[in-house]
Amino acid sequence: MASFPDCVNKNDLDKAKFIGELLVSVAPFDQKSGREAWTVAFAPNGSYFAWSQGHRIVRLIPWTKCLRSFSVSAGEEGTNPTSPQRLSRQDSVGSLTVPLADEPREHTIDCGDVVWGLAFGSSVPEKQSRCVNIEWHRFKFGQDQLLLATGLNNGRIKIWDVYSGKLLLNLMDHTDVVRDLTFAPDGSLMLVSASRDKTLRVWDLKDDGNMVKVLRGHQNWVYCCSFSPDSSILCSVGAGKAVFLWNMDKYTLIRKLEGHHNDVVSCEFSPDGALLATASYDTRVIVWDHHKAAILLELGHLFPPPSPIFAGGANDRWVRSVGFCPDGRHIASITDD
Where would I find the WD repeats (predicted)? Predict the structure, then answer.
């Protein structure tokens, strides 16, 4: 899974270049496996970058520090300042990248199990918790609060304070792998988790992580979930051909979108909420008008497109993920080819 910070300018896309590489230090017992990069995410304000390093480690890096490390390394080499640079774990604690006063600090987090999903969430104090019956809360989230949710192989979700690196909450109701996580964009700290236990669960972190609702309807593993920009609709996809749309005010199923010929593995709304893009193992990305349940566009990784009976991604064309650029006019997709 890949991620853009929200501050990306559409005019910069044509100028994209490789500026650096983040590497994990290699332990003697860790040569062959365990260092896979499963997922990455940018904080909503672009201040932090989170990187799942395989096994159980997540690294939280202040993004300005990361960029400065690349530029410093380029200057040291004295050759081509635009050539790609590498930042290893050892580099991150070197003398050239010591945190300045008041600068956010880097953290390495041991989550206790393999990390499958990452999501940042930020709080808006005036956005009250939906739980109105409890007056006392263990946590009081301020406007400057930034949280990281990690979905684990054992079904747990751990919530971390990004600035301190401390564990705040341990959510334990899922019974299988937590495959994906998404926070409501409205600052309410409502978190939705998608799991291989065939359910989606809604958590209210402003109510100390209370589980608000279990959304049932998927017959198999749930791979991905995504909020609409106004937080009113949730899309979820999984091991099946249907795309599920949920009303997040009533926690009810709105409709299923039919059109894919194989498992649907990724989904995302456009920044204005008008469009929905979904990616499937049938080698296609579909762009929907989800309000009318209409297919607007099909983007294929295989031409001619396979007939439904053969739409299994046989020729290394399984589409793994899809995402909108913040300008709303560009879509990126990743495939096995």
Answer: 141-170, 171-213, 215-256, 257-289
The backbone torsions φ and ψ at residue 11, rounded to the nearest 5 degrees and listed phi first, read -70, -15
Task: Give the CA dihedral 83, 87, 91, 96, nearest 10 degrees.
Answer: 50
* Distance of alpha carbon 247 from alpha carbon 249, whole angstroms: 6
Residues in contact with 175: Cβ distance below 8 Å, sequence separation at least 6, in sequence order: 155, 195, 197
What is the percentage of the chain residues whose pLDDT exceeds 70? 76
Query: For 241-283, what is each residue's pLDDT tens digit?
Result: 999 999 999 999 999 999 999 999 999 999 999 999 999 988 8
* CB 323 within 8 Å of CB 285: no
Residues 6+ apart with CB under 8 A from 185: 44, 227, 229, 230, 231
What 3-state DSSP class applies to 5?
Answer: coil
Report the Cα–Cα distance between both ends of the chain, in Å, rounded.
16
Identify the H or E element spanning 147. Answer: strand 146-152
Alpha-carbon distance of 199 to 178, in angstroms, equals 10
The radius of gyration computed from the CA coordinates of the chain, to the nearest angstrom, equals: 20
pLDDT digits (tens, 9 = 90+) for 78-109: 444 444 445 443 343 333 344 555 678 899 99
Question: Within a 10 A sphere around the Cβ of 282, how many other Cβ atoms?
Answer: 28
Determine the length of the chain. Answer: 337
What is the residue type of 297? L
